[in-house]
Write a structure and sequence with these properties.
alpha+beta; two-stranded antiparallel ribbon
Length: 380
């Protein structure tokens, strides 16, 4: 009789999951529902969307606030946001898939396919620069991020961007020998994008669609930052909460991802172990991304740890988390963090530069899954 009773207790939840019906949200959802509106009010954040992954499944996805300047269009989990530097982990996937197909080599000098060399001459040997070192920000290249352009027609070529047509940000240069130290460099990813396009004779945006977005069913994701793409996206806001105009970037590998919470969660889940759905990359390839890059000199104690396209963190319980954040002049902030081995993670997008305040929710999530004190771990 007890077994029969247990069966009846279990069946409704199982049937609900099988039929796609709503099931109770995870406990951390209460933290999100409490913290996000309060942070948005305090930091003048116009809109945000948050997704929570537990056990390799997207179990919570919710929009807050508004996607437009006027406050007429509510944010939903399907709102398209500009994700800025979350483009970089996507770029690592594009590159790993090309490597698997033998179309690019991770450890060959990029100078082999970039002739004439597009950067200014320097005392450092540019032939030591490889795609692996560009992906890990250890190639000795400069220029952390980009200003963007207000007019799509003003976009420079990749070669012009590398040479300094960056709307005031300067040229990409070499500041150190390759492999010596970590320095975050969107410019290095632009150099990598040029190498990929030269090698494959394909547009990078087409490769991203074919190798990443299409296999994962990411129907609302793109790195082709065009007026048509941005017309369907959330509108950006500055640090003061006021509207800012659209900006365009030619530097797609480091800067131009547009996506939704549901789409990006598909990608996160595909980067975890033993999860359902498509897995375009092998566990061995993913392990390369989640392994700290090797340096020829000792790493500074407070220096960021980076793999291939991912920051690597050690949570309070000793577990490993990987993630990335992004912010740009067009008024957007994004962040994600996940534990690939246990199949859980969190992501948010916001259409305000002040969305930086929502990083607190990511910190609270990290404390929650690690079962450590959030008060001391996530000080305001």
């Amino acid at each position: 009789m007890r077994a029969v009773l247990l069966l009846f207790l279990i069946l409704p939840l199982s049937l609900a999951q099988a039929q796609g019906l709503q099931v109770p949200p995870p406990p951390f959802a209460q933290v999100i529902d409490r913290e996000v509106p309060a942070l948005m009010k305090e930091a003048r954040i116009q809109g945000a969307a948050v997704g929570l992954i537990v056990g390799g499944k997207l179990v919570y996805a919710k929009g807050f606030g508004f996607a437009d300047h006027a406050g007429n269009v509510p944010v939903t989990p399907d709102t398209v946001f500009v994700a800025a530097s979350l483009s970089k982990p996507i770029a690592s996937w594009v590159t790993m898939r090309l490597s698997e197909q033998g179309r690019v080599q991770l450890d060959a000098p990029v100078a082999d396919v970039l002739s004439p060399w597009p950067l200014a001459q320097s005392p450092f040997d540019h032939r030591q620069i490889t795609i692996r070192r560009l992906l890990s920000h250890t190639a000795g290249t400069t220029l952390g991020g980009y200003q963007g352009w207000l007019d799509f027609k003003e976009l420079p070529s990749l070669e012009e961007s590398l040479a300094g047509k960056t709307n005031g940000r300067g040229a990409v240069e070499l500041f150190a020998p390759a492999g010596v130290k970590f320095q975050y460099s969107g410019g290095g990813y632009t150099l990598m994008q040029l190498a990929i396009e030269r090698t494959t004779q394909r547009k990078y945006s087409d490769l991203a669609r074919e190798l990443v977005f299409r296999p994962l069913g990411m129907k609302h994701s793109s790195v082709a930052m065009t007026p048509e793409v941005l017309a369907g996206a959330a509108q950006g806001h500055g640090d003061d909460g006021r509207p800012v105009p659209v900006r365009y970037y030619v530097e797609q590998a480091p800067s131009t991802l547009t996506t939704t919470v549901r789409d990006f969660a598909r990608w996160m889940i595909a980067g975890m172990e033993n999860t359902a759905g498509a897995h375009p990359l092998t566990q061995a390839q993913l392990a390369q991304m989640y392994t700290p890059a090797e340096l020829s000199t000792p790493r500074a104690p407070d220096e960021a740890v980076y793999g291939l396209g991912h920051f690597i963190e050690r949570l309070g319980d000793g577990s490993t988390a990987v993630g990335h954040d992004g912010r740009n002049q067009a008024g957007f902030r994004a962040n994600f963090l996940m534990r690939p081995h246990s199949g859980d993670g969190i992501v948010f997008f916001s259409n305000s530069r002040s969305g930086l305040a929502l990083d607190r929710v990511v910190c609270l999530w990290g404390a929650d899954v690690a079962k450590v004190d959030a008060v001391t771990t996530c000080k305001k």
